[in-house]
Design brief:
Blueprint lengths: L1 H21 L3 H9 L1 H26 L3 H11 L5 H9 L4 H31 L8 H25 L1 H29 L1 H32 L4 H12 L3 H12 L10 H23 L1
Helix pairs in contact: 1-7, 1-8, 1-11, 2-6, 3-4, 3-6, 3-9, 3-10, 4-6, 4-11, 4-12, 5-6, 5-10, 6-7, 6-10, 7-8, 8-12, 9-10, 9-12, 11-12
């Protein structure tokens, strides 16, 4: 178990972020400057409204402190490669989705450590583990930002090679993630069973709310239908592997996966079930 957490989890996340970088070009970042308004709406939904929705959900359900922290850690995670793939399936604005994922993933090394430290102190009080914001930021840089930068560099100077390995990297990352989710749930099985009802209800409700928030805010902002679909998906789909990794970085690995990891593990599975009806609806319009 320790090997899976210490090696498998960060390697899995690094591979996911590398596969994200492999699919990116410098133009994906420049596009933010030419499409400021749609990007701003998408960033508002992901960076501001998403954590607020998670906080409200946690308070309304009265979740146990550690699970509440797990919900919040999940809400701080960007969309990841999955949101880009699902946006393409939904016939949304893939370019906007990619730009949102790219920029917010990079910015997360600044936002996530600060928000994570505040969340743990708020919900866990005296029982909160000590969190080093600097240490968390460095760790996130090494396993998220650096792989993305390497992927972009490979795409820039070896495009053919990047095209050949992109699909394989995504499949490998998916397989590793599935293994880690199973391990996280199995390692906290009793706690998982005891809290499945309220935690599952909270996660599904939050997921539906996020999809509707992204859609509603972007529609109110008079964005195109393709842009609305992209922002909805990017708001509702999270990089659950990052949530699992944050939980491990914060609590250590001496006792296996912590309770903080459960929401990310469960959400990593349920979000596909929840988003599927939305995808079918999006494709028809």
């Amino acid at each position: 178990m320790d090997f899976l957490i210490n090696v498998g989890l960060p390697v899995s996340l690094a591979i996911i972020m590398l596969s994200l970088g492999i699919g990116l070009e410098i133009a994906d970042f420049r596009r933010v400057l030419t499409r400021k308004y749609p990007f701003a709406i998408g960033a508002l939904c992901q960076v501001v409204l998403l954590p607020i929705a998670a906080f409200v959900t946690v308070k309304l359900l009265g979740l146990p402190p550690e699970i509440a922290v797990g919900f919040m850690l999940l809400s701080f995670c960007p969309g990841g490669v999955t949101s880009n793939i699902l946006t393409k399936f939904a016939k949304g604005d893939v370019a906007l989705s990619v730009s949102l994922t790219a920029v917010i993933s990079i910015l997360s090394i600044l936002t996530v450590p600060i928000l994570a430290a505040w969340t743990i102190a708020h919900f866990m009080g005296e029982d909160a583990p000590e969190v080093s914001i600097t240490g968390l930021a460095i760790a996130m840089f090494l396993i998220t930002t650096l792989p993305v930068a390497i992927g972009i560099t490979v795409r820039r100077f070896a495009t053919g090679f990047a095209n050949r390995i992109e699909g394989g990297l995504s499949k490998l990352a998916g397989a590793l993630f599935l293994l880690i989710v199973i391990a996280a749930v199995a390692g906290n099985w009793q706690l998982f069973i005891e809290n499945l009802g309220i935690m599952g209800t909270g996660l599904v409700s939050l997921n539906i709310a996020l999809l509707l928030i992204g859609l509603g805010v972007s529609r109110a902002a008079n964005l195109s239908w393709a842009e609305c679909k992209s922002i909805s998906i990017d708001t509702g789909i999270q990089n659950s592997t990052l949530g699992l990794t944050l939980a491990a970085l914060i609590t250590g690995t001496k006792t296996g996966f912590s309770t903080l990891a459960l929401p990310s593990a469960v959400y990593g599975v349920t979000m596909y079930v929840v988003v599927f009806p939305f995808l079918l609806w999006f494709r028809k319009r």
